[in-house]
Amino acid sequence: MSENSLTIRKFSDLANPTRFLGLAARVLPWLIGLTVVLFAIGLYLSFTTEGDYQQGETVRIMYVHVPAAWLSMMCYTVMAVSALGTLVWRHPLADVSARAAAPIGAGFTFLALVTGSLWGKPMWGAWWVWDARLTSVFVLFLMYLGLIALNRAMDDPGKAAKVSAILILVGFVNIPIIKFSVEWWNTLHQPASVLRLGGSAIDPEFLWPLLVMAVAFTLLFFALHIAAMRNEIWRRRVTSMRRQAARAAGREA
Amino acid sequence: MTSLFLRDLKLAMRAGGGALIGVLFFMTVVAVVPFAVGPDLNLLSRIGPAILWIGALLASLLGLDRLFQAEREDGSLDLMLMQQTPLVLTVLMKCLAHWTATGLPLVIAAPLLGLFMNMNEVAIGATMLTLLAGTPAITLIGAAGAAVAVTLPRGGLLVSILVLPLTIPVLIFGVSAAYAAVEDPTPFLPPFLILIAITLFFAVIGPLSAALALRAASD
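Structure tokens for the assembled complex are given below, as produced in the milestone run.
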């Protein structure tokens, strides 16, 4: 028992909200600066490299579309890890993290869907096709929105955190099944071509801007995520301060 | 456990139109489809299994939000949380009772509606078999959603929104197995076995997460 409480104390020491706020205040300006620089480089590269001989200029959509799609999945993974943190370690910041990540993830998923649709029109001749990958990303988007709705529907943040953590984990277990079943169902989208055994299938001309943009997007995600967590902590503090003020006012009256 | 099963079954049968209301909804959904796509019998027989599956999916979502809410309102949920038997087993039993009261009538009503859709005997049999194997999975996933939303006053719509994306694999494999039985080259067994595997998988995941959520939601 003593050992257990010690580890928990150490854990919460590392991540008690005030320390986290201090850390965020120190890290955030650097993170934002780095993100802006990488975006400048990435955008410059993606607009100066040659167009594809078949797809022409539209290939530049890829530099936004592919990183956004990667991040939509990474964000769910971050949420799943936070959900584990809430349920297993009762980590005080885990539920804040999960709650803050959901709208960002929904945003990236939406970006991936919109850019994919804009790219699909000239390439496939349709804004939307019921293809495996599009469908599974769309389902992911619906799950994000459902989780946000559930989180909003509950008043008590502690209870909402636990319940949505369970749902996040159920969804996380389910995502491979959905992906697999949808791929069995129908496919038109090209298979993964950047990360695969035997080297990348993409020409270095396109690969470099893509990688820079992917790193820039990832940093953007972390900057947004930390900022959103900070805002959430502040929001909770304001709520509790208001409650205290109301209580004090009630005592005086 | 048996008494809990029987109690839930009786409650479901007697309260608010009972099991028939789900079947009625199922029939209405299926009956509306020909008005939308036109009374072309060839087309109807082609899309028949898919229509039956969608109708069954929607009908089994219908009563899900009441799965734990009635127990919470009259306080028997607290008794279930406190009793000796593991909560997971209790939840599994409740799911079974719920399925027997709402899912099984759908399966039994499916052949009749299949006739309306001008499906042949093989297609009707296959659809019925896939519904029998697949609808428990919907109830089991739905139990997790119902438990998550149990404290919300109007959780019904939210439960459907949360649960529907998770049931997509069930729908895909159910419909593809039903079609595979009709169209010759594709074998019936692989998608059907995967459907059964999904049901068994959710028989573990669903009650487990539902029990966890019920414990978290109790005050």
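Chain A touches chain B at residues 87, 139, 142-143, 145-147, 149-150, 153-154, 159, 162-164, 166-167, 169-171, 173-174, 177-178, 180-182, 184-185 (CB under 8 Å). Helices of chain A lie at 2-14, 17-48, 62-89, 94-124, 132-153, 157-185, 204-252. Further analysis is deferred to the final report.
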